[in-house]
Amino acid sequence: MNARLELEVELSGEVVELARAELASLAEGLVASISSESTRPAARIVALDVADMEVARELVARVSLAHRVVRVIGSEATAEERLLAESKRGVSASFRLRGHPTAPGSDPRIHRFAQIWKSGGGTIDLDHPARRFWVDGSDIASSRLLEEVGAVDRGAIQARRISRLPFSRPVGLDPKFARAAANLALAGPGRRIVDPFVGTGALLAEAALLGADVTGVDVDLEMIRGAARNLEAVGRPGARLLGGDSGMLAEQFTDGWFDALLTDAPYGRASGTGGEPVSDLIARVLPLWARRVRDDGRVVLVTAGGPDPLSEPWRRTVSVPVRQHRSLTREFRVYRRSVSLT
Ligand SMILES: C[S@@+](CC[C@H](N)C(=O)[O-])C[C@H]1O[C@@H](n2cnc3c(N)ncnc32)[C@H](O)[C@@H]1O
């Protein structure tokens, strides 16, 4: 039996409930080898264990609402042994106090670990280390040594915000939330995802960047052309984008099954529903596309609120309101089919 890696994910503070839901989704599906999950409620930290470093790095590359993923090396005593075993001539490392990244010098544990590393031949480099270690715990008894697997590249995600893309509209979803929603849909290689209200394409861009094969629909042809430009700008051209009423296109659609439906439904007057009340439109369109989702697939709906548009066997498994600005709260929902035991 292989030893598993104990990880801790440091969630970002924006919307902790959505961050937890995103991570739970990744843990369940994408990185299926994650076997256990526990939470330390006082801190915004989720503990997971994974099969190997490859899975751990994949988690870093995919997750949105987190800052950093670390692996647990061990308590003070076990860490010293492992550190000595892992230190190699010429390999640089940094040692810092978790929660105090800019004040590393004052803690005696930092000095001791740095000495151990140097005694094995390693060097210390606080600016560009090959390996980054963190000391956790307020005293020696609770001390643990952690090593950074990777920091989440939040700058790269935010570089895709709507104002930076060639086609911009006020409906554009913030890319960090779009990425979290794509993870709720378990977007990934080999998975087909449909967005029946594609708009500027923020959700499909994130799903495509995660490797999914994406299809989008919008009644507004300007949106279709704009979404195509945005997808090209993020390096994912070639999405299938269909112009027309999403309900009608769903009825005519015969090209296979989707693993997930992922959409940000119209809200208010800004979204051009041609006079159809938004809740009627969602209730008319969503069940038609949901029929094209595999039995074990999911529907991820971002909505300004309102009743559930899907009925049995679909059930809502996640529901997190996220305030976008003063006058708009969007709710992130996930629906899955109930398992039939007959
Ligand atoms: C809230 S926006 C989608 C926002 C998108 N997530 C983004 O980041 O740009 C909803 C979209 O639904 C489209 N829409 C409204 N009625 C529709 C219909 N009957 N069929 C297809 N699309 C429709 C609108 O044109 C609009 O682009």
Distance between the termini: 35 Å
Order of helix and strand elements from N to C terminus = EHEEHEHEHEEEHHEHEHEHEHEEE
The computed structural class is: alpha/beta
The CATH topology of the largest domain comes to: Rossmann fold
Say how many strands there are.
15
Share of β-strand residues:
25-35%
Number of domains: 2
**Tertiary shape:** elongated
Strand order within the widest beta sheet: 2-3-1-4-8-7-5-6
Fourth CATH level, the homologous superfamily of the largest domain:
Vaccinia Virus protein VP39
Unreliable spans:
32-37
Rg for CA atoms: 23 Å
State mean pLDDT (0 to 100 scale): 90
Query: How many strands, which pairing sense, and closed or not: the largest β-sheet?
Result: 8 strands, mixed
CATH level-1 class of the largest domain: Alpha Beta
CATH architecture of the largest domain: 3-Layer(aba) Sandwich
Number of helices: 10
Oligomer: single chain
What are the distinct ligands in this entry? S-adenosylmethionine
Q: Indicate the percent of residues in helices.
A: 25-40%
Please name the defining characteristics of this protein:
342 residues; alpha/beta; VC0802-like; Rossmann fold; 2 domains; 8-stranded mixed sheet; 7-stranded mixed sheet; 10 helices; 30% strand; binds S-adenosylmethionine
Fold and architecture overview:
The protein is an alpha/beta fold. The protein folds into two domains: about 5-150, VC0802-like (2-Layer Sandwich), CATH 3.30.2130.30; about 155-335, Rossmann fold, CATH 3.40.50.150. The chain has ten helices and 15 strands. The chain has helices spanning about 15-30, 55-60, 75-85, 110-120, 155-160, 175-185, 200-210, 220-235, 245-250, 280-290; strands at about 5-10, 35-40, 45-50, 65-75, 90-95, 125, 130-135, 145-150, 190-195, 215-220, 240-245, 260-265, 295-305, 315-325, 330-335. An eight-stranded mixed beta sheet has the order 2-3-1-4-8-7-5-6. A seven-stranded mixed beta sheet has the order 11-10-9-12-13-15-14, covered by helices on one side. Helix 10 links the parallel strand 12 (about 260-265) and strand 13. It is elongated and about 70 Å long. The two termini are about 35 Å apart. The model is unreliable at about 30-35 (pLDDT under 50). S-adenosylmethionine binds next to helix 7 and strand 10.
